[in-house]
UniProtKB/TrEMBL annotation:
<dbReference type="GO" id="GO:0052621">
    <property type="term" value="F:diguanylate cyclase activity"/>
</dbReference>
<dbReference type="InterPro" id="IPR050469">
    <property type="entry name" value="Diguanylate_Cyclase"/>
</dbReference>
<dbReference type="InterPro" id="IPR029787">
    <property type="entry name" value="Nucleotide_cyclase"/>
</dbReference>
<dbReference type="InterPro" id="IPR043128">
    <property type="entry name" value="Rev_trsase/Diguanyl_cyclase"/>
</dbReference>
<feature type="domain" description="GGDEF">
    <location>
        <begin position="305"/>
        <end position="453"/>
    </location>
</feature>
<keyword id="KW-0472">Membrane</keyword>
<dbReference type="GO" id="GO:0005886">
    <property type="term" value="C:plasma membrane"/>
</dbReference>
<dbReference type="Pfam" id="PF00990">
    <property type="entry name" value="GGDEF"/>
</dbReference>
<keyword id="KW-1133">Transmembrane helix</keyword>
<feature type="transmembrane region" description="Helical">
    <location>
        <begin position="221"/>
        <end position="242"/>
    </location>
</feature>
<keyword id="KW-0812">Transmembrane</keyword>
<protein>
    <recommendedName>
        <fullName>diguanylate cyclase</fullName>
        <ecNumber>2.7.7.65</ecNumber>
    </recommendedName>
</protein>
<dbReference type="GO" id="GO:1902201">
    <property type="term" value="P:negative regulation of bacterial-type flagellum-dependent cell motility"/>
</dbReference>
<feature type="coiled-coil region">
    <location>
        <begin position="248"/>
        <end position="275"/>
    </location>
</feature>
<dbReference type="GO" id="GO:0043709">
    <property type="term" value="P:cell adhesion involved in single-species biofilm formation"/>
</dbReference>
<keyword id="KW-0175">Coiled coil</keyword>
<dbReference type="InterPro" id="IPR000160">
    <property type="entry name" value="GGDEF_dom"/>
</dbReference>
Length: 456
């Protein structure tokens, strides 16, 4: 019996509960936002006063970049008006605004200092059904009066709370069918005090103005839920029909499928064994692993240049094996390999090429830097203490009359360095680096020799 068969009722109950949860979770879905604070979301910031947009003492900026303005109203003011107008159009196409139809609220963070009891917020919408390109005032005037004491902290104002101004409806004789709120083409919005404005200084800092709305409307959200249920039912029905049709055939094929699975697992095991690329003694790549890396690097050498090959060989390693024993030789190999690994970059590759011979492939490294790296490794190896166990298994220790508690073995290595030249194969570069290593041995070992460039 399948898991679904055993827990069908629980699964169905969980699906119903998830559906209910999804239905009520629409309000918590991520919101899309349209921010017009500062320099975002608008093309023009204009102050106006009773003298129109030629403002002066009555309306001025405290800090325009921060959208902080000041109104100074005195008995001498000809007309008491002061406000901020935010235009979303580019002149002369002033009738082309922005679509805020799919937003539900406007988030206002306003710091007001003054004696006015209310601030008016408005949004002007242009639509050819009721607006005239030759008349700015013909844009629909959606507005709301906000109490200043409600603005002492950030507030979310539902756009549905705005109303279409009665004076606009009367002035343009708007029919009932066109008297509803409209935010489909907002050409401008703003804030002012209406009239009358109390005498004195009024400072308004528009810290943030953000429109918020759902990416998916509630109707679309519920339709999606219903569609998922319908799709689930269809899929379940189709799957059941397919299951009944294929049931007998699956039973007949089961034995052959198990045999095929066994063969596949055997093939994978063989492949994983083949891909075992690490030399367990030194931690470096083994010959198979480093050969694969070399092949890949030389196939995409254009991305890896400059590319340098370093060959390292332990000096007198046969003597170490003969004198100290192969167990000591293995310890030397292990410590030397891990010393090199700890001192090369992540994009360098260390491989054990032969018994005591190592190869380092350095990407994005020219010959001079490769030489410096080889010298660094040579000095590290020379300065590394290879401690021997106080054991009679060491022929050299058996010859000592007074064996030390932790005798130490000094190990050195010789290095050959060659940079890959244009058009050169790996073998050609390796041979030059190997010749440089041979020269290092001739010069007395424990040194680094840089391979000569070939004549092109």
């Amino acid at each position: 019996m399948s898991f679904y068969s055993r827990h069908r009722h629980n699964i169905q109950l969980a699906a119903v509960l998830l559906t209910v949860l999804a239905a009520v979770s629409h309000r918590w879905l991520p919101l899309k936002t349209y921010e017009i604070t500062g320099s975002k979301g608008h093309t023009q910031l204009n102050l106006y006063s009773g003298k129109g947009y030629e403002y002066g003492e009555e309306a001025d900026w405290v800090d325009k970049d921060a959208m902080k303005m000041r109104c100074t109203i005195t008995p001498a003011s000809e007309k008491t008006a002061c406000g901020l107008d935010i235009a979303f159009y580019e002149w002369p196409k002033w009738e082309n605004g922005i679509n805020l139809h799919n937003y539900d609220t406007v988030h206002l963070d306003i710091d007001y200092q003054g004696s006015a009891s209310k601030i008016r917020f408005y949004a002007r919408n242009f639509h050819p059904d009721y607006s005239n390109v030759g008349d700015f005032n013909s844009t629909k005037y959606n507005t709301i009066n906000l109490r200043t004491r409600d603005l002492t902290q950030p507030v979310d104002v539902p756009l549905s709370a705005l109303v279409v101004a009665d004076w606009w409806l009367d002035q343009f004789d708007i029919p009932l069918a066109q008297s509803h709120l409209d935010f489909s083409n907002i050409t401008g919005m703003g804030f002012d005090f209406g009239s009358p404005i109390p005498y004195g200084e009024h400072t308004i800092h528009f810290k943030k103005i953000v429109f918020k709305g759902h990416y998916i409307s509630s109707a679309s959200w519920y339709l999606i839920i219903m569609s998922i249920w319908m799709l689930t039912i269809v899929v379940k029905t189709v799957r059941r029909l397919i299951y009944l049709r294929e049931k007998n055939r699956r039973y007949l094929q089961r034995v052959s499928m198990l045999e095929a699975d066994k063969n596949q697992l055997q093939n994978k095991a063989a492949k994983f064994e083949e891909l075992s690329t690490t030399d367990s003694l030194t931690g470096a790549y083994n010959r198979f692993g480093i050969d694969r890396i070399i092949t890949n690097l030389f196939e995409q050498r254009a991305l890896m240049l400059p590319l340098t090959i370093i060959i390292a060989d332990i000096d007198h390693f046969k003597r170490i094996n003969d004198t100290e024993g192969h167990a000591v030789g293995d310890k030397v190999l292990s410590k030397l390999g891990r010393t090199i690994l700890a001192n090369i970059r992540e994009n360098d590759f260390l491989g054990r090429w032969g018994g005591e011979e190592f190869i380092i492939i350095c990407t994005h490294t020219d010959a001079q830097h490769g030489f410096l790296l080889a010298e660094k490794l040579r000095l590290l190896i020379e300065g590394t203490q290879f401690e021997l166990e106080n054991s009679t298994n060491s022929p050299r220790l058996n010859q000592q009359l007074h064996p030390q508690l932790h005798p130490q073995l000094k190990v050195t290595a010789s290095f050959g360095v060659g940079e890959v030249q244009a058009g050169e194969t790996f073998t050609e570069t390796f041979n030059r680096a190997d010749s440089a290593l041979y020269e290092a041995k001739k010069q007395g070992r424990n040194c680094t020799v840089l391979a000569q460039h070939t004549n092109v």
